[in-house]
Every structure is written in structure tokens, then in C-alpha cells.
Specification:
Helices cover 31% and strands 18% of the residues. With 351 residues, the protein is an alpha/beta fold. The strands form four sheets. Strands 2-8-7-4-6-5 form a six-stranded mixed sheet, sandwiched between helices. Strand 7, helix 7 and strand 8 form a beta-alpha-beta unit. Helix 6 crosses helix 7 and helix 7 packs parallel to helix 8. The structure holds adenosine-5-diphosphoribose. InterPro entries: Macro_dom (IPR002589), Macro_dom-like (IPR043472). It comes from Aspergillus ibericus CBS 121593.
Length: 351
Amino acid sequence: MACPLVPLAEIPTIALLYKLRHLLPASSPRVQPSKAFNDTISLIRSDITKLQVDCIVNAANKSLLGGGGVDGAIHRAAGPELLQECEALDGCDTGDAKITSAHDLPCKKIIHAVGPIYGLELRRGRKRPESLLRSCYRRSLELAVENNMKSIAFSAISTGVYGYPSEAAARAVLDETRKFMEQPDNIGKFERIIFCNFEHKDEVAYEEITPLFFPPEDQVPSASSDLGPQSESDGESSKSAEILAAKLPDPPTVDPALDGQPETKKQKVNTGHTDQSSKSYFEDFSIKSDDDWEEVDGSEDGRTEKLDDEPVQVDSPSSENDVQSVQSVQSSGIIEMDGSHMSDSLLAKDW
Ligand code: APR
């Protein structure tokens, strides 16, 4: 059964996640809280091709001609006309992004950003991976503003095949996003900026890092804060919020493999998140997902990219570091994709 589409109203803001205590404050946030920012930034673990938002951001490669991972999922779901449109774009540099139509996807546009290959760029300069990753997100946000996109959902660029460590990526991304939002010209430009994670490791990284850069409105619970005690009416909205939260889309249970892609072998790894502090907000809804790490064999899409005349076999590990990075995970959630989602009447509710 195909996974259902996810309307924007079902994608929780971090203000809601704080209110539901599914996102916990950091002990030492780095910035001032902002209600406006907390009503804009959103976290979800989902298949990005299902999100009914203005635009989604693909983790592409320099050719823009598709590949595995989220790139493959997006091309597969968008249909062959996306590839035809991309062929006319003449590729894209690492750290840059280009925009296309969404074709058969439920969103309006696709922004294709080319993230850094972590190990390769690190060998070229200690700060290169981070500056290129920041550039991907900044360029994507700029493109979205230029195209009047009010809601944007990012996949976790470079944290899959390209091997960027999830926590370091989340830190750079959230800091860069906050800096973008603080620029006077950009205030109010977005209704939603969504970080759509697919793998458990990225979901946990964002849960831990988001409170550093987007702290709850008032870390000490007070009447008006995200964590405030509930008044009668608040109790009502909080109850509805609980229902919304309980109906969050189930984490994807299969990694969208391209048709005809070689089978990949699985090894079970212990995700090991048991203590309360790193408890995923999905675990509140007894969604258990043992992420199965898969070794992506080198022939996943046989792509070899020339990076500045340095041929790089993108999907086959060339060093011990890359072995860790050339993995993709298949979230083999134990939950059933029963498509259980809220009724439309609940969606109409104004949070
Ligand atoms: N929805 C959302 N996120 C997804 C999906 C999906 N359907 N499928 C995978 N992801 C996540 C991965 O779990 C990872 O966190 O997207 C993130 C980026 O991983 P990759 O897709 O491997 O992209 P990246 O690490 O940037 O490597 C790019 O891989 O697929 C090829 O053509 C692509 O050569 C390029 C390289």
C-alpha cells in the first residue's frame, strides 16, 4: 500500500513539539528564543516525496541526472519528465543548487542541491565540507525566496552516501538557517522551513541540536511560553495537538530503491537510544524503528563523478572513513504502514 501524502498541517512546528514535550530544551542554548522562528521551523521523519509543501530539496549529484538515495526516490516519484528537465540544466557545482518543476510530485518545485562528499572535501581543506554544506542550504533558501516558495522541506543533504556526520551536519545547517532567517530582508519570507529526516541517526541529531539554535520561547515554563502550564483553552488545543502528534506520519519503512537496483545486504545495528534525554519524539508513539544499516555496494548506481578532474567513485568506499559513510540505512520500522492518519476535520484545526 502506497504511503499517504502528508499535508503541511500534519508537519509539526518545533513550537508544537516543545509544547508536547517531544522536543526537549537544551541545557545551554546559544541564542535568544524566537516565537516566530519556532512557528516556522519544523521537524518530521518521512519520505520527502510525500510532503505537500511548496518545494522540496533534493540531495543531488553534480550531473543532476539522478542516482540512489533521496535523489533516486525523487526522480522515481516525479517521473521521467524530471530527468528531461534536468538534462537541460547542464549540471550543478558542489555547494550550489538549481530549481525545476515537481512534475508528478505533490509539491510545486524541486530544488536540487549538490552537497559535499565529506571525506573528499575534508582532504581538500578542513573547513571545506562545512562551508559547502552551508552554501547548499543558503542557496536553496535563496532560490525558494526568488520563486516565492513559502514552505520548503530539506532532505538531510550529504548525510547518506556522501558521508557527512549527522550531528555535525545538523549543527551547520541549523546555524546557517538561523542566520538566514535573522537577515532583515528574509524576515517573514517563509511560513515553514522543514527538516525532513529519513534515517533515525539524522532524526536524533536534529532533536538534539535544534534546541541549541531554536530554543523554546521561554525555557522556564510560564503562562505564555511553549512549555507553559495549560489554561482551560490551552488544554483543549493541547489535546488536539496530542492527537496530531499521535498521528504523525509513520517513519518510512523502506529505503526507496530504484527499480532494478542490486539487492543490498543488511546488518542489524543497535541504534541504542534508550535514555530519556535522547528519546526520539517518535518513540512517544511507540513507533519502534530498528534501523537496518545496509552496506550500499559500489554498483548501486555505478556513478563515477569527476570532481575537479579527480575521478571519484561516489558510491564505493575508497577508505576506511568512506566505508562508514557509504552506507544507507533502511528504516525497517516495525510499525505497519497502515496509513493511519488524522481525519480532515482535525487538519482544519488551527493550532
Ligand atoms: N525522503 C527523505 N530523505 C531520504 C529519502 C527519502 N525518500 N531517501 C533517503 N533519504 C535521506 C538519507 O537517509 C540521507 O539522510 O537523504 C539523505 C541524503 O542521503 P543520500 O540520498 O545518500 O544523498 P547524499 O548523502 O547527499 O549523497 C548524494 O547519493 O543518491 C546519490 O545521486 C546522489 O550521487 C548523489 C549522492
